Amino acid sequence: xxxxxxxxxxxxxxxxxxxxxxxxxxxxxxxxxxxxxxxxxxxxxxxxxxxxxxxxxxxxxxxxxxxxxxxxxxxxxxxxxxxxxxxxxxxxxxxxxxxxxxxxxxxxxxxxxxxxxxxxxxxxxxxxxxxxxxxxxxxxxxxxxxxxxxxxxxxxxxxxxxxxxxxxxxxxxxxxxxxxxxxxxxxxxxxxxxxxxxxxxxxxxxxxxxxxxxxxxxxxxxxxxxxxxxxxxxxxxxxxxxxxxxxxxxxxxxxxxxxxxxxxxxxxxxxxxxxxxxxxxxxxxxxxxxxxxxxxxxxxxxxxxxxxxxxxxxxxxxxxxxx
Length: 323
Fold this sequence. Notes:
Shape: globular
Structural class: mainly alpha
Mean pLDDT: 86
Number of helices: 13
Largest sheet: none
Order of helices and strands: HHHHHHHHHHHHH
Oligomer: single chain
């Protein structure tokens, strides 16, 4: 709560300094707080049913809402593909967590089949990132059954997230060798890479208080109004850097690290904690290269998953977590 309060407070400070619009950040903080609280309560009462229902809801939301689909009219350089992939990834993680939370072999098999169905849905919807990250979470969850120490696994997820972020910043800063840079930039649209570079340039000139929340679209010449863009650089960390300065970046990183720490200390079984860590790390990777965190459904879904994976059962008598 201290970290979330600091995020909300800093957004208000930077908004006041530059006439910014902090409503988006405040809504995200509210969604995370409400989602985490709901996840802790529902996970304590219904450790299997709650994440199972969340996985089904995430899949249904992705399929039924056209504004979150990867239909052809969103095939422009920027769109909503990141949110689609993020919801599919979170739904896969929730189904896998529910599978590990139950002691009934038949039900565990059904829940894993649900996770496979979510991954398959990503392929059917045309979300390459969605089915790739979902499949990665599913494989990590299966491998987590043999994990004896969750600390090493969660440290590995932190390193993986750090590598993705470092790669994005290196691309934005044109710090990679020519051939490697060309290969990585070919995976993204030229427009998206241009936005990253403009964001990094602005962040370097306004490293203290940033330019103010919600103002990147106003100051960046590379965010044309004709594209289905929300005026962000389509990278969560770069958005924090350009709009809220270095402190905003540190706060975002601190929230992610605290989630991993909470999973490390969670009373839930180790496979549940590791699976949730893998899903949230995949979300962090997606958020580093897209606008996934601009969607309330994604931020609240991530908080729900974290709450389910850190809930303490009401029954008590839970064995100490394996550290």
